[in-house]
Amino acid sequence: MNATRAFWLRQLHTWHWISAALSLSGILLFAATGLTLQHAGLFTSPPTTSERQGQLPPALQAQLTDLPTDGEAPLTGELPRWVRQQLALDIAHRLAEFSPDEIYLRLATPGADASLSIDRHSGDIHYQQTHRGAIAYLNDLHKGRNAGSVWFWFVDALAIACIVFSLTGLALLWLHGKGRPSTWPITGLGLLMPVLIALLLIH
């Protein structure tokens, strides 16, 4: 084995196992949730609903008159702090929908739909969350639904790791393929199957 080939083999093996280690949990998650999404009817659970209610103190209720009566804007100031203390909900800088009668916030998270409404006239606060179960939570992570910016960047990083894993694997097949006659027929079959299915069986 010449020095150049040995160098590239070491580099490819190193990056192959590093990318495999980094992407292992993500690959397992996305493979498993691919199955649960494909067979959603087999993995349903009854939703559970929880509610919280509160009443704004008069001083805060009076401040509602200073807020817009239409459009959308993030909530800031004392109101989000009070909601956090009294209802254990973080609504700071969350986008609120304003109307003359109500302030409404959508607070959906992976696997759950939630909303909070504030009655501008009475000061009543009502929060409701409907959780669809652990499988729904994982499925929403697969789709990036309501998962936030950190998850968005994690998926990008995972995609890059998977690309490195795949390309270094292909390069290792190339270097070792001469001594294994079945390498390229099997690799070619793996490449052709989705193409043939898409061209011939999806209309």
UniProtKB/TrEMBL annotation:
TM region(s), chain numbering: 15-37, 150-176, 182-202
Keyword Transmembrane: yes
Keywords: Membrane, Transmembrane, Transmembrane helix
Keyword Ligase: no
Organism superkingdom: Bacteria
A matching Pfam family: PepSY_TM_like_2
Protein name, entry field: PepSY-associated TM region
Protein source organism: Lampropedia hyalina DSM 16112
